[in-house]
Design a protein that fits this description.
Elements: E1 7-8, H1 11-21, E2 26-34, E3 42-49, E4 58-61, H2 71-77, E5 83-86, H3 90-100, E6 107-109, H4 110-116, H5 125-131, H6 153-180, H7 183-190, H8 217-237, H9 241-244, H10 247-256, H11 261-264, H12 277-292, H13 311-329, H14 333-336, H15 339-347, H16 357-371, E7 375-380, E8 383-388
Parallel strand pairs: 1-4, 2-5, 5-6
Antiparallel strand pairs: 2-3, 3-4, 7-8
Helix pairs in contact: 1-2, 4-6, 8-10, 8-12, 13-15, 13-16
């Protein structure tokens, strides 16, 4: 593939490039997309590179070419001899899963690996480029409209940088993981990213992302019905859910329980478009469905975790222990446990995930001993020591 064919526009070109990729141990991948005006991400560009410095080892794939079929790429995704390398891949993987119900395997996320290797919390790509690849990125093209054609040379250079530097980053992190015997830690973490449950947005469960402010079961039933309608409407028309109506408007409607279209006109928060037509009909029907539920069939209001008084001190000790153990292991604290996890553990109401897998080795075992009084913490200068009791 010549330099003039740096941008792939046909299925045949993509097939040829993927054949070249299959000759290597790994390939780096990134995407550019838009999501501000749609429910699902609109894929605009795919960048790929395989090891080496040849001029044809990195390409842009113009997915907006209507005749281009991504079949060869998906075949590569299923090639288990080639590791597919991304950085902060969740949105990239969602695009491919929604399009073809497929995940790249084996799969490697350099953001997760960097957190395991001590580069901090949710480390950005630019940081890794600077620290590992010893280079700088021109970020001025990051927020451009990637759906516009033709792409400028500046856009192309920016997009290619997302996969060419990624080769150096992957090789560096891969070697460090092997040296520290932590590759299995990364593999354990990325299993969540390659699980269909991570990306399935079932309208029946759309209400779960909302903060319920009432203990009324009837109110909750109305929230569930409204959230389901909104999600189905947004998915069917590929528009953001907030374009249908926003969360605060949903809660207002659940509280006022309108019966007629005229009642919607009294709302302070509903958009004008939601007070008539199909959206208005959907809102009124959702409220009607919730009203029809018998009292004994109403959903139970989720119980808020009750943390007993006195657990705050233990939670503070767990934070000290976590910081000490994370620094010693060279792992980002939040990858091990969140502040909420520590509060739950101290109160005995959750946080069990830290007692399994690599987290147990790094922190969980000592956290359990601390909670059960088998160890104590002592300050030794600027460090914290664990004392067996």
């Amino acid at each position: 593939m010549s330099k003039a064919m740096l941008t792939i526009t046909t299925t045949a070109q993509l097939a040829d490039f993927c054949t070249d990729c299959a000759k290597h141990d790994y390939v780096t991948i990134d995407t550019e997309f838009l999501r501000e005006r749609t429910y699902y991400s609109k894929l605009c560009l795919i960048q790929m590179a395989y090891p080496g410095e040849s001029e044809d080892s990195a390409v842009l794939i113009d997915v907006l070419e209507k005749s281009l079929d991504l079949g060869p790429l998906y075949d590569l995704f299923e090639n288990k001899s080639v590791t597919k390398v991304f950085h902060a891949a969740r949105q990239d993987l969602e695009i491919f899963f929604v399009d073809r119900q497929i995940f790249p395997k084996p799969f490697f996320d350099t953001q997760v690996a960097a957190m395991v290797c001590g580069f901090g919390e949710q480390v950005g790509y630019e940081t890794l480029v600077r620290k590992i690849a010893k280079s700088q990125l021109d970020k001025s093209s990051r927020f451009t409209d990637w759906s516009q054609r033709p792409l400028s040379d500046k856009q192309k250079a920016y997009a290619l940088g997302d996969v060419t530097h990624l080769r150096d980053i992957y090789e560096f992190l891969s070697k460090r993981l092997d040296k520290t015997n932590r590759r299995s830690w990364v593999e354990e973490e990325v299993q969540i990213l390659t699980s269909p449950e991570t990306y399935n947005t079932d309208p029946e469960n759309a209400w779960r992302r909302l903060k319920n402010r009432s203990n009324s079961r009837r109110f909750l039933a109305t929230v569930q019905a409204l959230a389901k309608f909104r999600e189905e409407y947004a998915q069917a028309r590929n528009i953001p859910r907030n374009r249908v109506f926003k969360d605060d408007a949903l809660m207002e409607v659940a509280a006022t329980r309108p019966k007629l279209e005229g009642d919607l006109g009294k709302s302070r928060l509903l958009l004008r478009e939601a007070r008539k037509g199909q959206i208005a009909e959907g809102i009124l029907d959702a409220v009607k469905q919730a009203d029809a539920i018998s009292n004994d069939a109403l959903p139970a209001v989720p119980q808020i975790k009750q943390r007993p008084q006195g657990s705050e001190g233990l939670a503070d000790l767990l934070r000290v222990l976590l910081k000490a153990k994370a620094e010693k292991a060279g792992v980002a604290q939040k990858l091990i446990a969140s502040a909420s996890d520590l509060d739950d553990i101290a109160a005995g109401v959750g946080g069990e995930q830290i007692f399994f897998g690599w987290r147990s080795e790094v922190f969980g075992d000592d956290a359990k001993d601390l909670c059960e009084g088998r160890i104590a913490l002592s300050a030794n200068g600027s460090s914290v020591e664990i004392i067996k009791l």
